Amino acid sequence: MNAREEILSRIRTSLADVVQPDPALDVPNPWVYGQPTAMPDILERFVDMTVDYKADVRRVPSDQVAGLIKDMLLGVGVGSVVLPSGLDAGWRQAIAEAGITIHDDDPQLSRAELNGIDAVVTASAVSIAETGTIVLDHAADQGRRALTLVPDTHLCVVRADQVVSDVPEAVGRLAEAVTNGNPLTWISGPSATSDIELSRVEGVHGPRTLLVILAE
Amino acid sequence: MTTTEPMRRTPAPPSGTFLGMPTFPTNAKAQLNNTQMRKNLRNATTTIRAKRAKVVGEVENWEELRLAGAAIKDRTMRHLDSYLVLLEESLTKAGATVHWARDAAEANQIVVGLVKAKGVDEVVKVKSMATQEIELNEALEEAGVAAWETDLAELIVQLGHDRPSHILVPAIHRNRAEVREIFLREMHLYGTAAPEGLTDEPAVLAGAARTHLREKFLRAKVAVSGANFAIAETGTLVVVESEGNGRMCLTLPETLISVVGIEKVLPTIADLEVFMQLLPRSSTGERMNPYTSMWTGVTPGDGPQEVHVVLIDNGRTRVLADPDGRYALRCIRCSACLNICPVYERVGGHAYGSVYPGPIGAVLNPQLRGIESDIDKSLPFASTLCGACFDVCPVRIPIPDMLVHLRHKVADKKRQGLHLEPTIMTGAQWAFGDHKHFEFMESMAAVAAKVMKKDYLGPMPWPASPWTRARDLPMPPTESFRSWWKRTRGEGK
């Protein structure tokens, strides 16, 4: 018997006491999936929770996003950025006008090249107010996973209509991207660790600076 | 290192095996003498307990979430064969290669074979309990492959020639000053040295780890990970982490090998809405952990283009076979039960003789490995049965009930030979079975108390030594209640 057959056979022997073949009838689960969590102001909660992780978060009208991207990048001393191919053309233009060197990921940049770039600017897929989490589904306006990982600063734009109350609503919205085979990256604040004496320290391997623009 | 030892590529772990360890009380006694470790643990567990309590308190439907988590896990475990077959099908469709391993040796053989086939002599690793359990790093080392741990705490353990002592924070027994010493002493032997003037500020130490590991991330061709969850319907694997070392390993190398225990499977993506609330709040006491990665086989143009998943049994089907013991397979390795446990807080993780310490280790190890070794026979007794572990468990594992269940099993096994405990129980049966016998025992105790003139009985010679070694026994009174009653009230009053 090969390993697969043997393990499956061991499982079936171990589960001799289970007689109901339908898993849902065998173990009922009263949980109701996909429910929102009630809160007074979803956007305000999202900002509060993201700030709590020491991210720099700004709320602006949509038409001011391009200018703010430029200001925030210059504010942390960024000299070069990598931009995903599907990024908003207006944002790209504002970055170029600021005199910041733009790198494109076409053809794909090597790891060493990415390591030499200061920042990345992306859109996002879904955000979660209750936990201050931004989820990337790595569509064309976010780029492949390495882009938002290797550079030390990540500026991420979140649209107000992409913010949901809590994890259940977010998982509901993301299910399609997963089914399509997209990878997901959930980001809650900058890279951090609690490994030394369980006190939280920001800044390990991922981007140490997380800048967030909430566009309304 | 002496000259007779063969050259190693990675820091050598301490000698000896977990299964060769003595019983829990013996280990505990040795660990209790380590006052530095006790202080470190008290600080760390006090911090994390407060953080957890705060963020769990924020969730109004926490109990409903716990019930849902338990139900989803039970449902999956009770139909594990069909969910595993579905997972395999989804993974294969998504471009991953699925391997099955009956035990640790087979899993190691598969991973070593895959790594050697890529012609590399090093891999980067995401923190993974499954690979710790099968001792993969040593198997790779023997095959001439260096396995670099990239989680900060795992790095501290690896560079410190140490063993993990906690599920989530394996270096919880080390304080910042000790970490600094380890980095200064070891980092330069295995790559980028610690910077000059390294202080013991956690932020500075984390910075040293970033620099030390960056060159390894940038050149690694193969990564090895575990998975927190594996979604059957889509073939999606999930890694929950903090530092970004996981993202580095899961994204940058060309080949990714994930070693996944068969109990990690969840039926659907939707189930993540329950576990992505339960896990971060229970483990690090955060509303959400900094990073979570989800990937489904191979994504063209993004991340590793060769993806392997090794599904391991290694005792899990044995746990599954006991209807009163299989609850242990609900465990999502959050470590809340360790952080709350008064026994763990005092003795630390090393005394449990496994990569799974604390209350969950006390119920999991004897089931995964069987109650053959001294350490596994003693683990169900490594608890005061206070019940705090059940209260904090996000998937409601009835650890205290299971400890009692396993104690019965150990006692049944002992009964097969000639042992002290059953003999004492027979004696107790005699003494309590008849009031005349009981009064006789009382009068003997009173005589002993008069002769010895002490307040407490300390350690006593064998056969009482195993029990009295760790306990002070109050002296029996010089006069029993029954004789006092007779003397002061008289017969028939």
CATH class of the largest domain in chain B: Alpha Beta
Indicate the percent of residues in helices of chain B.
40-55%
Strand content of chain B: 5-15%
From the N-terminal CA to the C-terminal CA of chain A, the straight-line distance is 61 Å
Molecular structure report:
The complex is a heterodimer of chains A (216) and B (493). Chain A has 216 residues and is an alpha/beta fold. Chain A has one domain (40-215): NagB/RpiA/CoA transferase-like (Rossmann fold). Chain A has helices at residues 3-14, 23-26, 42-52, 65-75, 89-97, 111-115, 167-179, and strands at residues 56-60, 80-83, 101-104, 119-122, 126-128, 133-136, 153-159, 163-164, 184-187, 192-193, 201-202, 209-215. Chain A has a six-stranded parallel beta sheet with strand order 1-12-7-4-2-3, with helices on both faces. In chain A, helix 4 crosses helix 5. Chain A is globular and about 70 Å long. The model of chain A has no long low-confidence stretch (mean pLDDT 96). Chain B has helices spanning 24-32, 35-57, 62-78, 80-93, 104-117, 129-133, 136-142, 152-159, 176-190, 202-219, 245-251, 272-283, 316-320, 336-340, 342-347, 358-369, 374-378, 388-392, 399-415, 420-433, 435-452, 465-468, 481-489; strands spanning 97-101, 122-125, 146-149, 222-225, 229-231, 236-241, 255-261, 265-266, 291-296, 306-312, 456-457, 473-474. Chain B has a six-stranded parallel beta sheet with strand order 1-10-7-4-2-3, with helices on both faces. In chain B, strands 8-5-6-9 form a four-stranded mixed beta sheet. Chain B is globular, with a radius of gyration of 26 Å. With 493 residues, chain B is an alpha/beta fold. Chain B folds into two domains: 27-316, Rossmann fold (3-Layer(aba) Sandwich), CATH 3.40.50.10420; 420-489, no CATH class. The termini of chain B are far apart. Chain B contains 23 helices and twelve strands. At the A-B interface, helix 1, helix 2, helix 6, helix 7 and strand 9 of A face helix 2, helix 3, helix 4, strand 1 and helix 8 of B. Strand 9 (184-187) of chain A pairs antiparallel with strand 9 (291-296) of chain B.
